[in-house]
Amino acid sequence: MCNLYRMTKGADEVARLFSAAVGQIGNAGGEVYPGYPGLVVAGGELRSMTWGFPLVMKGKSGQPLKPRPVNNARADKLDSFMWRYSFQERRCLIPVTAFAEAEGQKGRMTRTWFSLPDEEVFAAAGIWKDSPEWGPVYSMVMTEACIHVADVHDRMPVIVRRDDWQDWLDGPPDNAELLCRPYPDLVVVERTSELWAKRT
């Protein structure tokens, strides 16, 4: 599952690429982690939301704990209660420069990055909602890995081709569901020596 991605372009440039107005933009970083803000295209606007639907947690004695961000929604689970209404009514596009997966031995895992050739920014499929805990939040839709990703992980983000952006955003759910498939074209793989969990 994707727990890290890059978005290194400025908001104005991304908004032009997606033919979107610039909405409320917060402090989204160049590397986006679960529970932190990222940019999404929804309702004709590029805006900031928190990456991950809040999952309310409780301690052993029933006391409320800090919510956990659920940042990935499996395509084969989109009809579940947690995702159903967002998938049917509130789909979004997530601008991405590259996404990462951890590779290697536990405790020494490194970052392997995936991007598209000749596309500095591409769109991952997302769903969103307003939450009482964190305000607007989004989750990235995941599907089976394509051949370029499968050596590292068995799942990958749903990459939405430009010709399909409107179908994902505004089409009926049945049509959007058909877009939840492994990416059929070339994905560039960049293996690095950078540790997955950076030491401070």
What does this structure look like?
The chain is mainly beta and 200 residues long. The protein contains 4 helices and 16 strands. The protein has helices spanning 11-17, 84-89, 165-170, 173-178; strands at 5-6, 21-22, 31-32, 37-42, 45-51, 53-58, 64-70, 72-74, 91-96, 98-103, 110-115, 122-131, 135-144, 155-157, 159-160, 188-195. Strand 10 (98-103) and strand 11 form a beta hairpin. It is globular. The chain starts with a strand and ends in a 5-residue tail after the last strand.
Helix-strand blueprint:
Layout: E1 5-6, H1 11-17, E2 21-22, E3 31-32, E4 37-42, E5 45-51, E6 53-58, E7 64-70, E8 72-74, H2 84-89, E9 91-96, E10 98-103, E11 110-115, E12 122-131, E13 135-144, E14 155-157, E15 159-160, H3 165-170, H4 173-178, E16 188-195
Throw out a few tags for this protein.
single chain, 200 residues, mainly beta, hypothetical protein yedk fold, nine-stranded mixed β-sheet, five-stranded antiparallel β-sheet, 4 helices, 16 strands, 43% strand
Quick structural overview:
The protein has 200 residues and is mainly β. It has one domain: SOS response associated peptidase-like (hypothetical protein yedk fold, Alpha-Beta Complex). 12% of the residues lie in helices and 43% in strands.
